[in-house]
Design a protein that fits this description.
Helix content: 55-70%
Structural class: mainly alpha
Strand content: under 5%
Number of strands: 0
Low-confidence stretches: none
Number of helices: 8
Length: 168
């Protein structure tokens, strides 16, 4: 029997498909329950669907039962096997240990270098940023150049725009 034939065997009628789960759960009223029971005797597909649902529920009920505690012997046995596997992996760890030490030394050396650079920068007296007075030229009064000097030609305008010194 193919997979498709197996699905069709459990295929419920579209008109009864919605109420079959309520029928199995015994949530239908008396008249409706009787109507579905009569239909189940006449329709093999709906009867097979109800049987499959009941079978599935019984399997789930059995799977949900509590399992007994395996006891202390089980715990000791599992832990001893874990320790045995842990001891076998010891040589692999010896390969990584020198690399870990080297990486740790590199981290500490980097941290020391950064600390020395920060200490040197703060104790040397060299300003980190130039002050505003140093950036501005002495002949300039405001933030912008004197607006009164108008270029006399287009060439002079182009030279002012492309000047990289910006008024210095």
């Amino acid at each position: 029997m193919s997979r498709m034939d197996e699905r069709e065997q459990y295929q419920a009628c579209p008109g009864y498909e919605a109420v079959l789960e309520d029928y199995v759960s015994d949530e239908l009223s008396g008249a409706e329950k009787e109507r579905v029971a009569v239909h189940l005797h006449a329709c093999a597909g709906c009867a097979a669907a109800v049987d499959a649902t009941l079978h599935g529920r019984s399997i789930l009920r059995l799977a949900g039962d509590a399992v007994e505690d395996p006891g202390p012997f089980f715990t000791r046995r599992v832990m001893s096997r874990i320790e045995a596997l842990d001891q076998r992996s010891g040589p692999d760890r010896s390969f990584w240990k020198p690399l870990e030490i080297l990486a740790l030394r590199a981290v500490w050396a980097s941290a020391a270098a950064i600390t020395l650079l920060v200490a040197y920068g703060s104790l040397s007296g060299v300003p980190l940023k130039p002050t505003v007075a140093e950036v501005r030229s002495s002949d300039q009064v405001g933030l912008f150049a004197d607006p009164m000097s108008v270029p006399s030609s287009q060439d002079e305008m182009f030279m002012r725009i492309t000047d990289t010194r910006h008024g210095e």
